[in-house]
Amino acid sequence: MTSVSGEAWFADPALRSVLALLNSDGGEGRVAGGAVRNSLMGLPVADVDIATTLRPDVVVERAKAAGIKAVPTGIEHGTVTLVIDGKPFEVTTLRRDVSTDGRHADVAFGTDWQTDAERRDLTINALYATADGTVIDLVNGLPDIESRTVRFIGDAATRIAEDHLRILRFFRFFALYGSGRPDADGLRACARAKGSLGKLSAERVWSETKKLLAAPDPGRALLWMRQAGVLTEILPETEKWGIDAIPGLIEAEKAFGWTPDALLRLAAMVPADRERLKAMAERLRLSKAEAATMDYCASAPEIAPKLAETAFDRLLYRHGQQGLTMRVKLALASARARGLGDPEALAFAGLCQRLLARAQKWQKPSFPLNGADVLASGIPAGPKVGSLLGVIEDEWVAGNFHDGRAKLLARLEALAKEG
Description:
This is CCA tRNA nucleotidyltransferase. Keywords: Magnesium, Metal-binding, Nucleotide-binding, Nucleotidyltransferase, RNA-binding, Transferase, tRNA processing. Residues 30-151 form the Poly A polymerase head domain. It comes from Shinella curvata. InterPro entries: Bact_CCA-adding_enz_type3_sf, NT_sf, PolA_pol_head_dom, PolyA_RNA-bd. The chain folds into four domains: 1-147, Beta Polymerase, domain 2 (2-Layer Sandwich); 154-234, Orthogonal Bundle (cca-adding enzyme, domain 2); 243-363, no CATH class; 371-418, no CATH class. α6 packs across α8 (184-193), α7 runs parallel beside α9 and α14 packs antiparallel against α15. The protein has helices at residues 13-22, 34-40, 56-65, 113-118, 142-147, 156-162, 166-177, 184-193, 202-213, 219-228, 230-234, 246-256, 262-269, 274-284, 288-299, 309-319, 321-338, 343-361, 371-376, 383-398, 405-418; strands spanning 29-32, 49-52, 69-74, 79-84, 87-93, 95-100, 105-109, 127-129, 135-137. It is α+β, with helices and mostly antiparallel strands. The strands form two sheets. The protein has a seven-stranded mixed sheet. A two-stranded antiparallel sheet has the order 6-7. It is built from 21 helices and nine strands. It is 53% helix and 11% strand.
């Protein structure tokens, strides 16, 4: 019998307290979904979610009586978050779908574990662990855990019709947990239903896409998304640009210890066109910070093969550290991918490594003059103040920031006399 009773996370006193609270007076609670899946796959367990036969109001009453903080995070859908020693546990009442429209579901609470399991999306996400650690498999998920098969529960098309976002979840979970080729039925169903993604809110689509792009290696999933037409559906910007840079980027991340960055991977997949990326950011409702990051990358210049490090400093001053760092990383990943047997690519990769190190420790120098200095030189207030200041700053940058304030003031005086 499969069990998780020996796992450290399952012995957590806070979790034991929650399970004891739910498994008394005729109630039952089981750990559900991701914690069981990851534990059986030998992967770290982060959040622990629990399913229960108790209605949400009963869960709240029991928690209050036991002195446990209860937060009604999604009580209309049956979810209450119990917090013990600062650790949150989402507790959700067993449910069945009354109606679905591909975006939202009306649910009714129940006590049937089979019904609750069958309304979930993927077999590997529908396993339960009882209070003694015994794993309960009601949808034939254990064989899929062993073979690392990502498969919809029951009919794939039906599961997708219930929630169109499951198309993207299928590929995200394949990126995280799948091996070999995606499940054929699931892949066909996703390809046929890809047009339904347009019915979802942009926020849901971007949230799921960002999670997929942040997977340790989304390369195979992105390939199958392209094959199924799903990638073009959500990111038409990739249609003529593609995902060819992704494998090299993943290898560079591994080689240099870079933290997987969803936005850097997105930048590798789309053209560096500021207007198109602005439209993409608006369509997908990227946050202001995310949209700015994409714009910084697109507006930064490409890295020339023989760029001098002093010239790179000037680029950093003009274009900023963030966008240029992204550009250098992309150029380095590309050069490494071409490098075998290509001396020029290897040399460029070496240059990019030096530039990246330089960018990461670079601090923007402060221009020593300001508008008050120009006014003090006798130039009246007006457009000429900024224009003159800009000329001197350009010269200062061209000289690699070497000139000090005294020399710049002398230059200012000379220009002011010229009128």
